[in-house]
Hints:
Blueprint: H1 2-16, H2 18-34, H3 47-54, E1 63-67, H4 73-80, E2 84-89, H5 92-102, E3 108-112, E4 124-130, H6 141-151, E5 152-163, H7 175-187, E6 191-201, E7 213-222
Parallel strand pairs: 1-2, 1-4, 2-3, 4-5
Antiparallel strand pairs: 5-7, 6-7
Amino acid sequence: MDALRRYLRRLAAPFLGGRYSSKKQARWEECWASHRESAWRITEIPDELQEAIALGWFLPGADVLDIGCGRGECAAWLAQQGLTLLGVDFAPSAIAQARTSYGESQQLQFAVLDICRAAPERCFQALFDRGCLHGIPDQDRPAYVRHVAGVALPGAHFLLMHKVLDGTLDGTTPAYQQTADRIRREFQDYFDLVRVRQIVIPRVAGPKSKPPVPALAVWLVRK
Length: 223
């Protein structure tokens, strides 16, 4: 039934246009304002992001854009590693919580921004997205790609973590390859896809505990 609902929403989205996106933004703002996003709260920095630092995928001192930063946990951690961060999210309550938790400085800043509607005013040597793109309506994904590409310097490294719809935790369904192929097609004009890995995005247990989310980690380089 959930798969059918998602399919019907994808069919309807192009005809709903901006109304669909606005309703989705309002829903997320309500979640952040009421703290109902707790299942997605980050309690540990993702292994893939730690690897990006340890293996030099994100170079020391790089200027990084964290897309859909939420409360800012990953942005703040990256700033602690010596990188310069701008964390953006389209939910004002998320950005307010990030500023309250971590403050701001020359090395760490947060801004309310819908990456599908506008781009930051500076360019970046590295980019990170932990689960923003997979929540964007289909009709807005091309705008996301254009805006991300527009602020990525030549050779910029992008680490994308993307949910696999209808994927299984054992990684045996065709959905993994289908998701990887889709991402490759969407980014191919601007980025080279250099690596893909099956991962799991954990969710914090709560009153309505849900299992971890099957996902892909995707490493891209700006052409």
